[in-house]
């Protein structure tokens, strides 16, 4: 069965985030579960084969070097100075770090993990029932997408706006499994608090006004990602093609312990081996623009396992849809490298130009 991706917006003059299109895209989980491995002929998965997958080295030995930031130490007067220096270095040198002692209660994390597992186990037509609700994304309304419109990725995705609170309408959220809405509500509230702390500490490393990324100026988009195994050609497909995120920061929770995330560093790919209790944070495009390039939005991708599925959930801390983001300069001598960016325009470009070979961020740079 072919699945219609919802939210076909994006026609001229329409003012909404267009996260999908009306292109027919196959649900990959269904493709895998409904075919015996030998039936998945090269023809059937041809569109997912990524010829450039091995173009850059994968340096697993550097996994151990991925920075780890202890939020507890940032909150302790005795350790805050050293830990802030580590945070600054992580943002400057890596654009990516793991956060320990993040303060999100275990039961909230366990709850969202269980719900996501169960959600993806629901029959396809039930999930499609939620996916195909009309999504008006204007001003961070609701959005539901299962699959990307330019789909090369071996993944099914389901996303929704969860902040600001006044814009969200929980009646659109999946009500199966029974505890899902409540769990999303708890998890996203906790993550909003956590994002707030992290961006406040990041702002301190730069002498920025933390108000720039304060709750009233941001939204939150949540995306649940399901990457089925690929028995026949795991090394030739990607769960998520290389990209950077259109966020200030993104917080990622690995729902099960199947590895797959790789980050780009000095031209190579470094697989991330997450610390069991950590959440993963990366710098997104809007923080790169705001810091005038001092903190880089890191490119990342997701590889696929031959036998095991991977599940993850990304929480994007994003600027308000009707806002702008400008570089904040350290001093008057500093050369401005990025344009003042209209969030809505950037979002459109981001969502439409994935495969034009140019990073969306390049459009935001002054030449
Ligand atoms: O699943 C992952 O590890 C990464 C997901 C991701 O990069 C994203 O949602 O933007
Ligand atoms: Fe990402």
TrEMBL record:
<protein>
    <recommendedName>
        <fullName>Fe2OG dioxygenase domain-containing protein</fullName>
    </recommendedName>
</protein>
<dbReference type="InterPro" id="IPR050295">
    <property type="entry name" value="Plant_2OG-oxidoreductases"/>
</dbReference>
<dbReference type="Pfam" id="PF03171">
    <property type="entry name" value="2OG-FeII_Oxy"/>
</dbReference>
<dbReference type="InterPro" id="IPR026992">
    <property type="entry name" value="DIOX_N"/>
</dbReference>
<feature type="domain" description="Fe2OG dioxygenase">
    <location>
        <begin position="217"/>
        <end position="319"/>
    </location>
</feature>
<keyword id="KW-0560">Oxidoreductase</keyword>
<dbReference type="Pfam" id="PF14226">
    <property type="entry name" value="DIOX_N"/>
</dbReference>
<dbReference type="InterPro" id="IPR044861">
    <property type="entry name" value="IPNS-like_FE2OG_OXY"/>
</dbReference>
<keyword id="KW-0408">Iron</keyword>
<comment type="similarity">
    <text>Belongs to the iron/ascorbate-dependent oxidoreductase family.</text>
</comment>
<dbReference type="InterPro" id="IPR027443">
    <property type="entry name" value="IPNS-like_sf"/>
</dbReference>
<dbReference type="GO" id="GO:0016491">
    <property type="term" value="F:oxidoreductase activity"/>
</dbReference>
<dbReference type="InterPro" id="IPR005123">
    <property type="entry name" value="Oxoglu/Fe-dep_dioxygenase_dom"/>
</dbReference>
<dbReference type="GO" id="GO:0046872">
    <property type="term" value="F:metal ion binding"/>
</dbReference>
<keyword id="KW-0479">Metal-binding</keyword>
């Amino acid at each position: 069965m072919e699945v219609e991706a919802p939210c076909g917006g994006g026609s001229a003059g329409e003012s909404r985030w267009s996260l999908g299109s009306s292109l027919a895209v196959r649900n990959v989980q269904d493709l895998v579960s409904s075919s015996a491995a030998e039936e998945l002929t090269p023809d059937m998965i041809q569109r997912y084969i990524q010829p450039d997958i091995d173009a850059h080295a994968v340096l697993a030995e550097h996994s151990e070097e991925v920075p780890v930031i202890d939020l507890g130490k940032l909150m302790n007067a005795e350790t805050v100075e050293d830990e802030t220096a580590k945070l600054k270095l992580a943002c400057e040198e890596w654009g990516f770090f793991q956060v320990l002692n993040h303060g999100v209660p275990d039961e909230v994390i366990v709850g969202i993990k269980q719900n996501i597992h169960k959600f993806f186990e629901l029959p396809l037509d039930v999930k499609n029932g939620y996916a195909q609700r009309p999504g008006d994304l204007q001003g961070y309304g609701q959005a539901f997408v299962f699959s990307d419109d330019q789909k090369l990725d071996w993944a099914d995705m389901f996303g929704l706006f969860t902040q600001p609170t006044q814009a969200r309408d929980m009646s659109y959220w999946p009500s199966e499994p029974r505890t899902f809405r409540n769990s999303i509500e708890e998890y996203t509230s906790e993550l909003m608090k956590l994002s707030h702390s992290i961006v406040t500490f990041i702002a301190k490393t730069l002498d920025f006004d933390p108000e720039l990324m304060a709750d009233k100026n941001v939204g939150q988009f949540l995306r649940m990602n399901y990457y089925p195994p690929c028995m026949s050609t795991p090394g030739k497909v990607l769960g998520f093609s290389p990209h950077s995120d259109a966020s200030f920061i993104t917080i990622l929770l690995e729902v099960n312990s199947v590895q797959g995330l790789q980050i780009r560093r000095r031209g190579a790919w470094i697989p991330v081996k997450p610390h069991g209790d950590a959440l993963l944070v990366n710098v997104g495009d809007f923080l790169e623009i705001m810091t005038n390039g001092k903190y880089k939005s890191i490119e990342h991708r997701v590889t696929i396992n031959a036998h095991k599925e991977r599940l993850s959930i990304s929480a994007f801390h994003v600027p308000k849809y009707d806002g702008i983001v400008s570089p904040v300069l350290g001093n008057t001598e500093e050369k401005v490298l990025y344009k003042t960016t209209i969030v809505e325009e950037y979002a459109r470009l981001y969502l439409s130009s994935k495969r034009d070979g140019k990073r969306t961020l390049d459009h935001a740079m002054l030449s």
